[in-house]
Amino acid sequence: MTPPRAPQIPVVVLAGFLGSGKTTLLNHLLRNRAGNRIGVIVNDFGSIEIDAVTVAGQVGSTVSLGNGCLCCAVDASELDTYLETLTGPAARLDVIVIEASGLAEPQELVRMLLASDNPHIRYGGLVEVVDAAEFTATRERHPEIDRHLAVADLIVLNKTDRVTDARLRAVRESVGTSGGRAAVICSAYGRIDPELLFDPVLRPDEDDSFRQLTFEDLLPEDDRTHEEHLHAAYESVAFTSDVPLCPRRFMAFLDSRPAGLYRIKGFADFGAGDPGNRYALHAVGGFLRFVPRRWARDEPRLTQLVLIGSGIDADALRKELEGCQEPWQPSAADQDAAEQLERGMWGVLRYVRQPDDDVAPAAAPDDDET
Ligand SMILES: Nc1nc2c(ncn2[C@@H]2O[C@H](COP(=O)(O)OP(=O)(O)OP(=O)(O)O)[C@@H](O)[C@H]2O)c(=O)[nH]1
Question: Which residues form the CobW C-terminal domain (predicted)?
C-alpha cells in the first residue's frame, strides 16, 4: 500500500532590510523547533548557526542537518528545483523558510511561490523583519521599504531592546500605516513564537530536550513586566460550532477580515451547502485557500477554527462568526433554497485549489492541511 502523502508544507518568505535580524530570527526558529523539521533556503548559509544543529551531509549546494533541517543556497531561478528537493518524501519537513537576501524584492519570491505548480507546498506568508531602531533611517535611504511592508502578511518589529517604549509605539504606528492589512508583532532577537508561522507538531520520538516556547519566553528578560510588550504579542481566538456555517455570510466575513488578523486555520462545515465534505481552511494575510475533504464516517459535523493575529478584537470576531451560523438547513425537496445555497457555495469554491486530489488522500482526521 502506498503510504499517505504529506499534507502541503507551508513555505514562509522571510524578508527584511540588511541587518534587520532575519538570520537571528531563523536561528531562533532552528533552536526552538520542538522536534519539527524546518527546511531552510538561504542565499548564504555561512550566516546560519549550523553549530546549533549537526551537519549530517552535504550534497551539491544542499546541506542536510542531522536533526532534521535542510539548508540550500539558492538563487531565485533555482527555487523550484530546491522546493522539489525539500518537499520530497525523504525530507519529511513541517515548514520551509526562504530567507530573502537583504536587497531582494520579496514580492518576486511570493509571486514565484504562488505560481509554483508544486502540489506539495502552500503559501505560508511573507514575514518582513524591521529594525525598530533604524526604521526611520532605513526608510529615508530605501523608500521602497513601504512597498515591502504593504505586501507583507506579518511584520516583525525587531530590536525592541534598542528603543524606548515611546519610540517603539511611534515606529509601530508608522509601520502599521504602511503595512496594509499585516499584523505587527514586536520582538527582540527575533524571538517569535514558531506557531505564528506553522503548526508545530509534537514529536515525542524526536529530541524532547526542545520544548514549546511559553508566552513568557517570547518577551525579553527586562521587559517581562512591561504592559506595552504584552499588548505587542499576538492573540489567538478559537471558534467551534456544531451549527453549519452559511457559505455566503462566511465568505463576507473572510472578505472583510480585519487588519491584524494574520492566520486562520481549521475547517468549516457548510451543512447542506456540501453535506459530503468538510472544508479545510488556510488563510495567511490576504491569501485564502479551501481544501474539501470527505467527512469520515461518524465524524461529528463541526466547524473548528483558530484565528491568530495582533491587535484583534476576540469578542467581536467570535460574534461575527456566530453571525455566520445557519441553523436552518433546506431539505433536498426545497429547490429554491437549495439553488440559493449552491450559489452561496460558489464564493467558497473560488478558493479551492484545483486539482489537488493527488496531494493528500481522503481524510484521516489529522491529515488535512490545517
Ligand atoms: N540589539 C539587538 N541586536 C539584534 C537583534 N536582532 C538581531 N540583532 C543583531 O543585529 C545584527 C544583524 O542581525 P542578522 O540576523 O544578521 O540580520 P539579517 O537581517 O540577517 O542581516 P543580513 O543577512 O545582512 O541581511 C546581528 O549582530 C544581530 O546579533 C535584536 O533584537 N536586538
Answer: 234-325
